[in-house]
Amino acid sequence: MREFKTKLQIQFENVEESYFETQNIKLVETTEESIEEQIDVFRQEYKIIIERITEKLNNYNLPQTIYSNIKLQEIKIPMFYGEMKEWSSFHDLFKSLVHDSKHFTEAEKMFRLKTSLGGEAGRLIQHLPVTATNYEAAWQILKERYENRRLQFTAQVDRLLDQPTANGESAQSMKQLLDTTKECIYALKGLNLNLNDEQAIIARIVVRKLDKESLRLYEQNVKKSRDIQSLDDVFSFLEQQYQALEAICDRKPTKWNNQKQPQRTPTFYTAAQNNCVYCKVPGHQIGECRKFQTLTTMNRRRFITNNKLCYICLDHVYEGKCNNKKKCNKCERNHHNLLHFNEFQKGKGGSEKNVTKTSSTMMTKHSEMAILIATAQIRVKAANGEYVTLRALIDQGSQKTTISEEASQILHLPRRREVTELQGLGNTTVGVSKFKINIKIKPRFLSNEAYNVEALILPKLASAQPDKTFK
């Protein structure tokens, strides 16, 4: 507006100079009186225009300055706590409103910067006092720490990949997956990355976050099953799902019966009463085990002691209380016949020549007690890249990791042929593995920890099935 006013004044002065220079020239068609009238009209219109321009300039300058100051005071800059993914938005907003502004002194900028920081970012410049000379230094320290495109890219991609699996029954879960994915994509675009070619990869990452039921619905809605999936199609599916789930949740369920049925939650455990404690073979107890009977009395006693078994019934007894009143047939002491030493015999001489004979007439009581074995649910990576939830038996005394044939078939992982003989106490063979595989396991809950384990394949890990429940 000012430039237009200046140009208009210069042009008017040029017109007046030209008019005075041409006063002595005789014009044929136009008289001198008519030219002077036109010049007077032009002068009047020029004054009116100049006055209007000056008035608008005066009215424009003051309100604009007032509005600018009010706007800066009303806008509150969000706090920055040192999260790499939040740096770009904080940097652009602070730079636009404070750093590049001419309305603040360097000391005021430093004050606003320190009051806008917290956490790690605040501790980074807390040693600098609020002075004008320290502002540029503080701003550069923050830029050197957080203006790292590689770390910003890594933070956004990790956030994208670490999203929890969406619950197909929760609208909020579907909406959260959609919103977080869009935020990550916009943040990556802010790093001047061309994501047009990588959208298919992002679409696949998002699809992997769906649960099995949602994945089945998604695959049923794919129009071109042979084409690479489109990110827009994935977004459309997520929007349809959470909108449908929200509509379903708004309906109140019909109450058919107010009486709640009692629920019984079974606790599965591995029963031990049908297996031999020594050879692990079902169908007999340790007192009837031929392999156990071939051991010397010293080795039999050592095995019973190490496994904390009862000396009378050769079984697990709660708090050392055994209800079996049977005593040794040879010395009538409180121990089983198979644990009898010669020096415990009444009378003289004799050896252990009657062990085999007495074992055929011995009476064994089957205890109703059971051994609870700790288990845990883990996630194991299959050949297709997805994680399968399996139940693991935790044996703290085992030196090898084993996996059942059924579980290995579910994973479809490549196996290597290698015959391995598994031995227990007393160098007894408890199983033979012919193959081994490498598995990757993770906790069932959300965690970045993962372990690569070499596992031996066995036909079956536990032969006994649960037959009791706990309330």
Set down the secondary structure blueprint.
Elements: H1 2-21, H2 32-74, H3 87-99, H4 106-115, H5 119-124, H6 135-146, H7 149-161, H8 171-189, H9 199-208, H10 212-221, H11 231-250, H12 290-293, H13 297-306, H14 355-361, E1 375-381, E2 387-393, E3 401-404, H15 405-411, E4 415-423, E5 429-443, E6 451-458
Helix pairs in contact: 1-2, 4-6, 7-8, 8-11
- Main sheet attributes: strand count, strand direction, barrel closure: 6 strands, mixed
Low-confidence stretches: 62-68, 256-273, 343-367
The end-to-end distance, rounded to whole angstroms, is: 86 Å
Order of helices and strands: HHHHHHHHHHHHHHEEEHEEE
Number of helices: 15
The geometry reads as elongated
Radius of gyration over all CA atoms, rounded: 44 Å
Mean pLDDT: 74
Describe it.
With 471 residues, the chain is α+β, with helices and mostly antiparallel strands. The chain folds into five domains: 2-73; 84-147, no CATH class; 152-249, no CATH class; 286-361, no CATH class; 375-458, Beta Barrel (Cathepsin D, subunit A, domain 1), CATH 2.40.70.10. 43% of the residues lie in helices and 11% in strands. α1 packs antiparallel against α2 (32-74) and α4 (106-115) packs across α6 (135-146). It is elongated, with a radius of gyration of 44 Å. The relative contact order is 0.06.
